[in-house]
Structure formats: structure tokens, C-alpha cells
Amino acid sequence: MTAKPVDQMTFEEAIKELETVVGQLERGDVALDDSISLYERGAALKARCEQKLKEAEEKVARITLGADGQPTGTAPLDA
Amino acid sequence: MDLFEEPQPDSNSPEFSVSEISGAIKRAIEGEFGHVRVRGEVGRVVLSRLGHLYFDLKDDRNVLASVSWKGQVDRLTHRPEEGMEVVATGRLTTFGPQSKYQLNVEDVVPAGAGALMAMLEKRKAALAAEGLFDPARKRPLPYLPEVIGVITSPTGAVIRDILHRLRDRFPRKVLVWPVAVQGAACAADVVRAIEGFNALRPGGALPRPDLLIVARGGGSIEDLWGFNEEAVVRAAAASQIPLISAVGHETDTTLIDHAADMRAPTPTAAAELAVPVRADLVAHVDKLQARLSRSVALALGTRDQRLRDVSRAMPRRDALLETPRQRLDNWAERLPSALRAATGQKRLRLLEAAGSLRPGLLRRMTRTDLDRVAALAGRMDLGLKRVLRDRQQELGAAARLLRPARLADAIGRGAERQANLLRRLSERARRQQAERADRLAALDRMRLSLGYMATLERGYAVVRGDGAVVTTTAGARGATEIEIQFADGRLTLGGKPARKSKDAPDQGSLF
């Protein structure tokens, strides 16, 4: 399958492959043994997707600028 | 100043020093024209080394010297360019040392929207010709960015709208780079922010965003002008990080929109382009999970069902044996009675047959046969005689057809032909013999005329030494016996006494 390990995939890569895996399984033309390993792959991909979705964290910071206009750090933003 | 303190005797007119009159003029002018808007075409523009901007405003008859001091230049809405029709705002002042009056310009705006738009179109065409707006340059936005860099004012509705919509859809890490979104500082700020975000390295103190949003709320074309500046357009086009522009309202288009990878009509829309809706994705992943499980369960179920179907279709062992077993039982049941019935039938037939077997019948049968034999014997005798008579008649008929005279004729004809052929053969043989004898005589005559014997007739002789022909005197001296052949015979000298040759001419005629 894909050379890239599941735990290094972006959300988009993981969900694209998950869709492919589901599609393959739903067509029903996979051998039984393959369908088991496909299912396991699918489960791993799904876990990766969920992990990326859980990372939905809001963190807003405002960049502070020095006198020369270059960033010096961050500060909370009071929007 | 007391103008009337010292009246001159020769005139009622007051007397001014140069500075006095300069000051008076300055006061008059500045008082009268403390705030004016002057429309005109920009003439020569000079930026001094100290950062002050000198330029002329002119119309078809007059020229007005204008100046913006260093601090004012940065706040100008537009940097005056030669040939531009502008409205300059400021106050009139004088410059006493040169007896000049001039307009101190606080702001310059193009004269009317038409002029501004014309300039914008010109700039847009130039940048497009460079390929900065080429669709092929545009990078795809990341599907789900981890860090979003927002370049906008840190206060106000725009950043709130963006953060709010991001929170609704998919909360992300957001870095806000504060910039002035209008005024003279705007363009430089935005350029610095785009370049600054791009300069961040992954893993640095500040996370490098994988998506940039340049945002500003709606405003007049002058308010938005900073986003039309060439430097801003170039920075947006050069950004390695995909960039969404969201400047003004839907109907406002600035040049940065053309250079951006994606244009959002509003800041809120930019947030929607930036991230997908998390809840949708969760639902989608859940649905995929369900389909995954269902399809595997279905695959197993289908195979299970097939196995059961096939198993059901396979007959039971008992069922396989049932019929043969019943047949066996059936036939086994019938076997003894069949045997009894068969025996009975045979016995009955035996009794029937035995009943008809009587000596009288046999005798009667024998007598009949004997009678038939006698009758046949009588007929056989008659038949034989008839056959014999028939054959004799056939022989007689054949013999009558045989006639000896015809045979004798045939023999006579044959003998005659034979004699005739024999005669022709002998005649032919005799003739051939004579022809051959003639040819032989002729050939021999030729032989004799060509042979050495004929030469001997003409006086030559053949010398032989010890039996071999000698052709030299040396050969003759070495020989013990010399024989000389003449035409009529041979003479031997030395050695043994000469022997009288009895040789006749070699051969005579055959005839």
C-alpha cells in the first residue's frame, strides 16, 4: 500500500486512503485474507483521522514586533 | 508691532522692513489659506536627501510649488507621480528667504475615482504582463492547515470574524501579524508581514504557518489603496506559503486579490476557505468507519451464507443411501417368492413336456422319416441319370464344333512364313559377309602402304642389336649380334652364325 506510515500522514492523506480502502471493501472483490488486512489498515487510518480531528485546538497569539518591524515573540491577542 | 508709532513726515504710508513685510504676508496667506484643497497636475517631483518631497502642482497657466515634509510623506494616501491629476490637501505658507509661497501638502489623492481607476488598470496590466497573476502560479490551499498566519489589524471586526468562523469550523493555531490596514504604512507593513511569515522556519521559535490570510474590512478605494501597491502584490505573488486575500467587501477588488492563491470575498469567507468543518469530517470519518465494519461483516456474511448454501445443497449421507437401501429391501423381499414361482413354472413345463413323451409317438416319427429317406433315394437316382445325359449332350455339341481342316490350314500358313523369313535371313547374312571382306582388304592395303615393310621395298633396312632396334653406331658397336632386315629377309652378323630368316611377309590376305 502507501509507503508513508499512517502515523505520519496528514488528515487529508489518511482520509483519502480510508475512502479508497472502504471503496475496495465495498466492491466486495477482495479475497477474504486481503479484506481482513484491508480492514486493519482502515482501522489504523480511521484512528489517524480521529487523532488529527482531536487536535482541533484554538490557540491564538499575536506576534510582537520590535522597533525594526521584525518579530520578537508572541503575546495574547485581545480581539 | 506698532505700525503707526513713528509716522513719516513725507508720507502717510507706513514703512516696513523686508522681514516685517514677509511676516505680514505669511500671516495673511496662512490666515486666509490655512486649509485648502488644490486640484492640479503633478509636475516635477523631487525627493530631497533629508526625505522631504518637493513637487509642482500646475494647470495650463500657473504653477504652485508644493512640499511634504519627511514626516508627512509617509502619511500621504498617494505618492504624487508626475503627470498625475491630484487633489492636494494642505495649507499655503510662504518661504521668506526666497520670496516664495508654497503649498505644504498633508495628503494627495488622485483627482476623482476615474483617475484612480485608470492608474490602477495601468498597474494591473503591467503586473499581469509580468505573469504575476498567472493561474499556473497559484498553489493549492492545504486541506487542513495546522497553523494559520493572519495578516490584519489586531483590533476590530475583521480578526474577530475570522477567529469566530475558525472556531466554528475547526479551531486552529492562529498567529496574527499586526499591520496597519490603511494609510501610508499599510503597504510596507503588509509586505513585511508576508515576507516575515515566509522567513519563519519549521521548528523555529514561532511555528511557520502553512496558510496565510491577508484581511481587511470594507472601505473606500482610497482606504484599500495599500493593497493595490506594487510591493504588496509582488510579496503576495512571491509567498511560498499559500495565501488567501480577503480585502474589502465582495465588490471591492484590489490587486493583491489577483496575486493571491485564492481570493475570499470577505474575511469570514476566508476562514471558510481556510479550514473544513470539523463536525462534518468527524461525521464523515464515522460514516467511513461504519462502512468499513459493514463491508467486512458483509464480506464475511456473504461467504458464510455461501458456505451454508453449498452445504445445504450437499445431500445427507442417509438420504443418499435411502433409495438404494429401499430397492435392496424390496428386491430381497421378492427374491424367495420369485424363486418359488420360477421353480413351479419349470416343474409345470417339465410335466407338460414329459406328458407328451410316448414311445408310440417316437415310432411314428421314425417311420415317417424312413419313408422320406426312401422317397428321396428314388428321386436321387433319377436326378443323377438326367444330369449325366445333359453333360453328354453338351460334349457332343462341342465336339461337333471342332474342325481339323482349319487347324491344318493354320499350320501350313505358319510353315510358309517361317521358310520365307529363313530365306531372307540367309540372303542378308551372305551380303553382309561380302561387304565386310571388302572393307578388310581395303584396310590391309592401307596398312601395308603405311607400314615399314613398304619402306624396306624402297631400299631401307632395319638394324637390330641383340633383338632390339638399333638407331646409332654406338648402339651397334655395343651389340654382340647385329641383325639386318631387308625387304626380302634378315641377315645376322657376328655372334652366332646368321640365321636364314624364314619369315614370310607378316600376314597374307584372309582370302
Question: What's the SSE blueprint?
Answer:
The complex is a heterodimer of chains A (79) and B (511).
Chain A: H1 11-27, H2 32-54, E1 59-65, E2 71-76
Antiparallel strand pairs in A: 1-2
Chain B: H1 18-32, E1 36-47, E2 53-58, E3 63-68, H2 70-73, E4 85-95, E5 100-110, H3 112-129, E6 147-152, H4 157-169, E7 173-178, H5 185-199, E8 211-216, H6 230-238, E9 243-247, H7 255-259, E10 262-263, H8 267-274, H9 278-313, H10 317-356, H11 359-401, H12 404-450, H13 452-457, E11 462-465, E12 468-469, H14 473-478, E13 482-485, E14 490-493
Parallel strand pairs in B: 3-5, 6-7, 6-8, 8-9, 9-10
Antiparallel strand pairs in B: 1-2, 1-4, 2-3, 4-5, 11-12, 11-13, 13-14
Strand % of chain A is 15-25%
- The CATH architecture designation of the domain at 120-276 in chain B is 3-Layer(aba) Sandwich
| Count of helical regions of chain A | 2
The computed structural class of chain B is alpha/beta
The name CATH uses for the topology of the domain at 120-276 in chain B is: Rossmann fold
The quaternary structure here is heterodimer
Number of strands of chain B: 14
Please tell me about this protein's structure.
With about 80 residues, chain A is an alpha+beta fold. Chain A has a single domain, classed as Orthogonal Bundle (Helix Hairpins). Chain A contains two helices and two strands; from the N terminus they run ααββ. Chain A has a two-stranded antiparallel ribbon with strand order 1-2. In chain A, a hairpin with a 5-residue loop joins strand 1 and strand 2. The termini of chain A are far apart. Chain B has about 500 residues and is of the alpha/beta class. Among the domains of chain B are: about 90 residues, Beta Barrel (OB fold (Dihydrolipoamide Acetyltransferase, E2P)); about 160 residues, Response regulator (Rossmann fold); about 30 residues; about 60 residues, no CATH class. Chain B contains 14 helices and 14 strands. In chain B, the strands form three sheets. Chain B has a five-stranded mixed beta barrel with strand order 1-2-3-5-4. Chain B has a five-stranded parallel beta sheet with strand order 7-6-8-9-10, sandwiched between helices. In chain B, helix 4 packs parallel to helix 8 and helix 5 packs parallel to helix 6. Chain B starts with 17 loop residues before the first helix and ends in an 18-residue tail after the last strand. The C terminus of chain B is likely disordered. At the A-B interface, helix 1, helix 2, strand 1 and strand 2 of A face helix 4, strand 7, helix 5 and helix 9 of B.
